[in-house]
Amino acid sequence: MADDAYLFLLPDNHPRIGAALAAVGSLECAETPAVRGWLSAHGVPASSERIRILPADSEILIPEGAERLPIPLSEQEQLRIHEQCAPHSVTEMERELLTFRETTEHWEALVHRALTAGIPAPRIAELTGLDPQEVGRLAQS
After folding, report:
1. Are 19 and 62 in contact (CB under 8 A)?
2. Confidence bin at 90 (pLDDT 50/70/90)
3. What mean pLDDT value characterizes the chain?
4. How far is CA 129 from CA 7, 31, 106, 109, 122, in A?
5. End-to-end CA distance of the chain
6. CA-based nearest residue to 7, from 47, 57, 88, 62
7. 96 Cβ contact partners less than 8 Å away, ≥ 6 residues apart
8. CA 37, CA 58: separation in Å to the nearest integer?
């Protein structure tokens, strides 16, 4: 494997480019001491939206002065990186937004069913990412 991509730390207030490291799924190199040390040195977790990845052929897009780390990838990982970094069409984005709306449209009914099943309100908030106060409000109604 060669250096097939770059991890980089996106500067504050910079437009999002590349893909978030967390969005591409697990990468073999992410568990290496070099990557863990690089993340630790910059004081950011791998799940941070500021940790971005770009294929090596897109290196020119990395902001000037951004901290970067070349990383090797397997062929399968390269495909995932290219897919995540490819621009989404407006139609695809609108489809994603509609899907999101459909899954969140009846959230109150879902919370009521969970409460009825005996799941505590704090656990529902934890699992769904909903505001704990909203879940608590529904628990009291």
Report:
1. no
2. confident
3. 88
4. 28, 28, 15, 16, 10
5. 58
6. 62
7. 88
8. 24
Give 116's DSSP letter. Answer: H
Distance CA 7, CA 43 (A): 14
Structure tokens at 131: 């505001």
* pTM score above 0.85: no
pLDDT digits (tens, 9 = 90+) for 28-69: 998 899 999 999 999 999 999 999 999 999 999 999 999 999
* CA 72/CA 66 separation, integer angstroms: 19
CA angle 31, 23, 83 (to 5 degrees): 110
What b/e string do you get for 8-36 counting C-beta neighbours within 10 Å, with b at 16 or more? bbbeeeeeeebbbbeebeebebbeeeebe
